[in-house]
Design a protein that fits this description.
This protein is of the alpha+beta class and 264 residues long. It has eleven helices and five strands.
């Protein structure tokens, strides 16, 4: 080890030069590597517990998970891609990320062009917000129809118990049953259009101005430090493993007999 320590001390200038060269190379690499920008937009959310009553964590997660599935669905992404060139739901999904916290979703889009990333993120938020609002409208319609259906079913029960069906404003029993059937079909249709979302989920106003733009990848400083470390490692490899490498760098090689004497 004494031999290697002496070699390091003797060639410290070479070490410094290699580290400087590596640092400069890392600094220049920042401008060579392709830049990727990430744009995040946000959608606030909450649950109306006055309508749902007390919910456990699993029930809350399930409700919000359905809304998240809609945001990331082909229905939303196909609508987004209709306004973009060379876009498909699969290709768009490769460059997006959705994260949920307690009270908002973060919708993030990555692109090599900052302006394109901003445009895609805004389109995604606008389209998702529109689909969510439309789905909730259908969920509310389904709930109204279910209330109406419950009333008509009550009329049927009263008719069976001998109470005249006229109290339900229906001319006869058969017409009442027919309305119940049609109402049930409409409920199923509205539930399908609601995409399974609950009307008890509340969404905050859409804010397209709240945008976070970040440049992904390594910074100047990080690449400079990595380059310097690589230069140092190259220097140490030359010291410990190869005398020929130092000859190529202009460093005189040691006589093997001298090295043998040092070890003894």
């Amino acid at each position: 080890m004494k031999y290697y320590a002496e070699k390091i001390i003797q060639n410290w200038r070479k070490c410094v030069i290699l580290m400087i060269i590596g640092g400069i190379a890392g600094f220049l690499l920042f401008y060579i590597l392709p830049r990727v920008y990430s744009v995040s937009v946000y959608l606030t959310t909450a649950i109306d517990y006055n309508r749902t009553g007390s919910l456990d964590e699993l029930e809350e997660d399930r409700m919000l998970g359905i809304a998240e599935d809609i945001i990331n669905s082909d229905l939303v992404l196909q609508s987004v891609c209709q306004k973009l060139e060379a876009c498909s739901p699969a290709s768009f999904r490769e460059n997006i990320r959705i994260e949920r916290t307690i009270d908002f979703w973060s919708l993030t889009v990555s692109s090599k062009d900052a302006a394109d990333a901003v445009r895609r993120a805004r389109l995604w938020l606008e389209t998702a917000y529109s689909v969510l609002a439309d789905s909730q409208n259908h969920a509310r319609q389904a709930e109204i129809l279910e209330i109406r259906s419950t009333g008509m079913e009550s009329c049927v029960q009263e008719s069976v118990n001998g109470v005249p069906p006229v109290i339900c404003d229906e001319p006869n029993f058969e017409t009442l049953l027919d309305k119940i059937q049609k109402n049930s079909e409409e409920i199923a249709h509205q539930r399908h259009l609601s995409n399974g979302i609950s009307s008890a989920i509340l969404f905050g106003p859409m804010n397209l101005d709240h945008i976070d733009l970040k440049q992904s990848g390594s910074s100047h400083g990080f690449l400079t430090i990595i380059g310097s470390i690589i230069g140092l490692l190259f220097f140490l490899v030359c010291i410990f493993f190869s005398h020929d490498s130092f000859e190529k760098l202009g460093i005189p090689s040691e006589d093997l007999s001298k090295r043998s004497d040092l070890k003894t």
